[in-house]
Amino acid sequence: MKKTLQDQLSEFAHSHGFHIQKAPNQESPQKEHSKKKSKTKSLTHTAQTISNIAANKKSKIKGVIQGIIEQANAGRNTEKHRVNKSVDISAFLKFIIDCKEKGVISEADVYFCLCTVDNIEEFPSNQIKEFQQVLGDSSLRIQALFESDKLSEEDKTAYLKQLNIIKQQQESEKLEHYTALAKKVLLYGIDVDAKISSTPILDEDDFTLAIDWLDNNYKNKIKNSVNVVLEKFGDDYEIGRVLSARAAEKAAEIFYERCGFKVVDVSIKQLKENGNDAWKYYDLEVDGYPIDVKNSRRSLNSGERYVEHCVPKFKIIRNDINVKISGILSRYLWPKTLLHSEDIPDTSLLFLGETSYAEIEKLRAVFSSEYFDIDFGRPGIGTNYFLPPWIFEYPSSLYKKRNEAIAELANQDAMDYIFSRPQTLNPIPLCIVTNTDLRKYWHDESLSKWEWTLYQTLYDRIQTNGLSLPFVYLSLISHFTEILHRYPEDYEEYRPQKYRNIVFMNEAEFIKPLGVHDPLNTVRSLINVLDKLWTSDHGMIKQYKYFKLSGFHIFQGKKSSTDNWETLVAYCGGWIAGKGKCGKYPLVLGESNRCPVCKKLICPLCGFCSEGCPNSCGTDQDPFSIDVQDHDVNYYKDIPF
Fold first, then answer.
1. Where are the domains of the chain?
2. What's the pLDDT at 321?
């Protein structure tokens, strides 16, 4: 059947993305034969109207096609343009493909037109995928035309330019990807927030349990009544201590559940399950493993100082399983606040990590030497352990994202690529954690002898023992003692502040040493203190050859193995009349004078040297210098030891 004029026009318009409806008065071909001759004029007028509409549409279509060709020519000149976000990408792609199939534009026009789009990532994902598919298909076809020498010279030149641009973009994206991975390794930390935003609410059972930890004198006065505590003991230190301890157990439970572990509150069974004495040994079961929660409270006068975690005895249960110690750092809150914490703006707690007797003994075995001793006790305090903040480490499962990034960067191609580009990040810590030999890329002259030695030591220890805050921390301070004891020839080039270049990603962010989570910045503080000790009086520090790091934040030295220990770094334990605890830190040999009587460092602010020394000008400790185990408190601000 012969096509009508309207059908022909509609077909042409439709082939270019438009649709023309029938005119209202138009009749079907079958009915035309039955119409009177008088209506011929009307039909002719209708056809003319359709013809005019089609011509107008055709003009617009030509304009659109001309725009596409102009866009393609811009692409040939490597220009980029942003597409209005209101554009329907699917319709746009359909139109240019249809035009190409009709022979209106060429394959090269399609390719270069698509190459100009500079903001496709701003569109919906389904449209992005469709665009990339069409561009990818066009790229393959234009490549085939290029290889078969079927492109014009102009298009060949333009195609090569586009290839170069694409290569540069890919290089840039690749570098951005590896840089992002490096940041994830060295800056990301753990996968969950270690901060518990507010102190858990203590219910009636929690209150009863905490009060049961007090001596009978307290219990007889309190009579297990919250109202009595609020009325008579709202500012009582000891009651605040036990309530804080119970709140810390609940905070640890919150943290472990946040990590996806199954947690059982064993401590509360002291009240609820007669005959079950597991609570005597640990507080929580985390995926079936025993956890003993130890809480330390920040200083009353300074939230940046806090009491050490005291462990009277490490516990071992069935089958010689070491009970792990979880460290919690809490605000200094009075009983009245713990029972009505909504009145205080910040009651947050911090989960510091875990440790155990076996892990601590392993550290001592690895790092202790004839000239460096690690002691977590206190003189005259029996067998108690006093744990510094750097001893804790987070469960390895919380480093999943960091470890995935390490695995990808450990690919040799990745490190080769990073070193082939201009350095935008520090590659030393990256090589240490990815098990990459830095000497493959750097000459011996790139680092000093002692820096290469430390690099290799960290590299070897981490490959053997894994990444952890205690290993990083002790590696640095033990290296400091090794320099002083064994390598005086390195003195000229050595300076502790250069440790930053070994363990931190860049100079602007001294956090996450070698990618381990260090919430209190203990490694950064250690480097600062050691550098202060080194630079305060070179001649004096070089006399010492034997060293001891004590659990109560004291670093000591001896000039020979038979000498008595002398304080190298300490904090002030004195008090300033009318103001409270002094707490100055650090007191550093060379900056602070040494007392001729007790041989301790003298605080330049309050004159305190040691408790009971007749030469001390400071005021001795007051009742608030008692920690959770009724021993002397050591408050400090930013103390690494």
1. 5-26+43-151, 195-355, 397-562
2. 81
